[in-house]
Every structure is written in C-alpha cells, then in structure tokens.
Amino acid sequence: MTYKTRVWIVVALTLAIGVGTLFINPLPQDPAYHLFADRRGCLGIPNFGNVVSNAAFTLVGLIGLAVLYGGKSLDQRRSLIDTLPFAVFFTGVALVSAGSAYYHWQPDNDSLFWDRLPMTVAFMSITAAVVADRMHRAVGQKIVLPVLLVLGVASLVYWSQSEAVGRGDLRFYFLVQFLPIALIPLICWLFPDARYTKRRYILGMILCYGVALLFDRFDGAFYDLTQETISGHTVKHLIAAVATMFVIPMWRAGNIGNQIQA
C-alpha cells in the first residue's frame, strides 16, 4: 500500500465520521451528569474527593514539561521542534487540574466548559503528535496541531452557546473526544515507523483511559461497593492521570533515540 493511499484512508475515515456526526440528532447535556455520587465536603472544600483528586493532573503535567525542557538534546533544534505537540499536551494536562477542580467545586454547565476545555487541548495535541511523528512531521506540527486545537475549542463554544439558547448539542465535543481513540490506532497500524509515539505506550494510554471511563460510568456503584469511601468518578481522575503519564516515557524513549543517532 502506497504512502498516499494510507494518507487517504486516514483522511477518508476522518471525513466519514465527521459527516456522519451531522446525521445524529443533537445531544443536550444531561442535567443528571452533575449529580455525582460523592458530594461530601472536607476542609471547607465541597465535593472534596472529586476536587482534590485533580491534583494528579498537575503533577503529571509539570513532570512532563520538566522532562521536555529539563535536559539538553544533542540535536537541540530538532528536539525543540519535536516537543511542540507534547508541550501543548502536558500544558493541557496540567490545566485539566484547575478546570476540573473548578467544575467539581460547583458542578453546572458553565463550569463544565472549563473542565472540558483543557481536556480538549490534550486530546487534540496528542493526536497531532502522532500525525507529526508517523505521517508527516511539518504538517502535523504546523497545520494539524493548530487546526485541531481550533476545532476542539470551537466544538466547546458551539456546545456552550447551544445550551444557552435551550438547544444543547454535544455531538461535536463527543467527536473531538472519541475520534482520536479511533484515529490514533489506525495511524499506528498504517504508519508503523515512529520515533516517539511507540505503540506500547499508545496502547497503554488508550486502555488506561478506557478503564477510567468505566469507573466514571459506575460512579455510584463503586461508591457503594467501597462503602462510601471513594467514588468511581474520583478513581476516574486518578486513572486518567495515569493514562497521561504514558506520554512521559514515550517521549523519553524517542528523545534518547535522537541522541544516539546524533
């Protein structure tokens, strides 16, 4: 299969899913989403577990940025260019902590926007990192990254505005969140050569995030199972933070490869 054919497969799938989204009925935000199982306060912090568990994202984001910029590469110019999507990713991860803590302090649609915004930045930037590493370096960094970031933010603005006029529509936000889960494995299969985005780390990240979503789905059941010790949503935060940690050894392995070849 030629390179051009593989590119068109990725483009065609992206367009097909995007166009298909238009034929789905609008999806308003379920008000019950804000009713998390664990609403206990502590130390003056409402919804304590769901608020403070977001500190894990700050830790991962800061460690990730330190790994990116804490050492000197033997090919520093190349390394600095390659860091861009990863730097945006770790910045987004660190900001998830603030956005999600703000939302869980007082859960409603307005604060949920700020919870989802940095998550969107993280989803879009890691997708661009895979494109840059496996398909085309310059296109991924200079075109795909900014385009995906704009589209991601636009999906949230559209949702927020649609809720404000009573016609809430989450379709495009869901597209932004779940399209990378479909595209990234496909790109890894079609374009096996990679320096940074090794499949074992990508697989670990996706599986870990899937487990996090399961805990979120069974928020109340897990809370009951643990005799109201910890809720599924709180555990979701912790496991989702672990999922983002896979990017740290992924980057380090690729950067070591750069130094060996320099």
CATH fold name: Rhopdopsin 7-helix transmembrane proteins
Helix-strand category: mainly alpha
Which percent range fits the helix content? over 70%
Q: What best-fitting shape do the alpha-carbon axes yield?
A: globular
- Overall average pLDDT: 90
Compute the separation of the termini in Å.
31 Å
**Highest CATH level, the class:** Mainly Alpha
Beta percentage is: under 5%
The count of DSSP E runs of length 2 or more, i.e. the number of strands, is 0
CATH architecture: Up-down Bundle
N to C succession of SSEs = HHHHHHHHHHH
The tally of structural domains comes to 1
Figure out the total of helices: 11
| Spans of at least 5 consecutive residues with low confidence | 258-262
Rg, nearest Å: 19 Å
- Major beta sheet, specifics? none
Mind explaining what this structure looks like?
The structure is a single chain. α3 packs antiparallel against α4 and α5 runs parallel beside α7. This protein is mostly helical. The C terminus is likely disordered. It has eleven helices and no strands. The protein is 76% helix and 0% strand. The chain has a single domain, classed as Rhopdopsin 7-helix transmembrane proteins, CATH 1.20.1070. 36% of the residues are buried.
